[in-house]
Amino acid sequence: MRNLVLQNKKPFLLVGKIVLLIMFSSLLNVTDCFCARLKDIASVQGLRENQLVGYGLVVGLAGTGDGTQVKFTIKSIRNIMERMGIISIDPNQVKVKNVAAVLVTAKMPPLAKIGQKIDVVVSSLGDAKSLLGGTLVLTPLKGIDGKVYALAQGPISVGGYSAGGAGASVQKNHPTAGRIPNGATVEREIPVDLLSKKELKINLFRPDFTTVGRAVDAINDMLGAPFARAIDAETISLRVPPEFEDSPVSLMATIENVEISPDNKARVVLDERTGTVVMGKDVRISTVAIAHGNLSIQIKESPQVSQPAPFARQGQTVVTPGTELEVNEGGGKLIVLKQGSTIGELVSALNAVGVTPRDLIAIMHSIKASGALQADLQVI
């Protein structure tokens, strides 16, 4: 017997990974506005991280390194040995099962000084099975200009493992990538001269005209004069006041703690893979009617077998399929949302209808298509 059931489940439940996250403050009777510090929503132009990368070898692996088919690992081992004075090496005699070729990446923080320690990420390049227990050999890390800015070396911390035999294997996380905390030492600085600057540029992480206007007003109120002005929705030009010309650090320490109420576009984010729905408090709905109904289809097959009587001279066994089909369409409910309805009213109405998060995703698509959703709809 085969039983197939298709139905929209009811009521509104969060099951498994299907999670509905609704963020709105209009239902909470909150009178105080949300404020963020300037340092949390913006940064000074020119003070940024720089990406570093290098090629190196990880040694000391317990037979989980690259195979003999990875030729560049063999060449790298030969080059290292030759630099150490061992010049007569036959490549055919080199076994690389305890060595793995890797790419080493790091982020050099702004204003990093010589001797400062930074973290590095080590990732396998060849067919190594695991980097667990390995040690990175001294590796130069270069910037986009080809210059060496840091040197990396040390034991690798891997957040996973792999083991197995001929019949079964087990693996947790990714054993072919790991980290070395404080594994690189800065050897070259990226020059940043703040003392010579008469004007600083401040960039918002999320461009918005309302937010940049509020930030300019807050900075000028803090400094007591119109030293800041908005260039566009992202950039603020700050003229250094005379009393801070010899101390730009004091200027930044003064304004970075200025509290600003950031503003964002009304946005609805849908993740169809997990059934997650996130909606901001500023989402508005125009007048719209929504109908929702349940559909249940049940199919049962019961084969009927007909065969001749015992000791019969003639006849044959016949199998006749028997199918039972039942369709039950629940009575759909129609709800009407008035113009200007908030996201809280929408959720309450849909919850009363009995939709699930995945149903809500389809409904939000339909509302957007009808032009009634006054928000940006993003699908990730």
Low-confidence stretches: 1-32
Instruction: Count every helix, treating DSSP H or I runs of 4 or more residues as helices.
Output: 6
Work out the strand percent: 35-45%
Portion of residues within helices: 10-25%
Task: Give the oligomer, counting copies of the same chain as homo and different chains as hetero.
Answer: single chain
How large is the radius of gyration? 33 Å
What class do helices, strands and sheet pairing give? Answer: alpha+beta
Mean pLDDT: 78
N- to C-terminal distance: 40 Å
Q: What's the total number of strands?
A: 28
Shape: flat
Number of domains as seen in the coordinates: 3
- Major sheet size, sense and barrel closure: 6 strands, antiparallel, barrel
- Record the strand order, biggest sheet: 5-6-7-12-9-8
Commentary on this structure:
It is a single chain. It is flat, with a radius of gyration of 33 Å. The strands form nine sheets. The chain has a six-stranded antiparallel beta barrel. A four-stranded mixed β-sheet has the order 2-18-17-28, with helices on one face. A four-stranded antiparallel β-sheet has the order 4-13-15-14. It has six helices and 28 strands. Strand 14 and strand 15 form a beta hairpin. With 380 residues, it is of the alpha+beta class. The protein folds into three domains: 3-29 and 267-308 and 316-379, no CATH class; 36-46 and 193-260; 50-186, no CATH class. The two termini are 40 Å apart. The model is unreliable at 1-32 (pLDDT under 50).
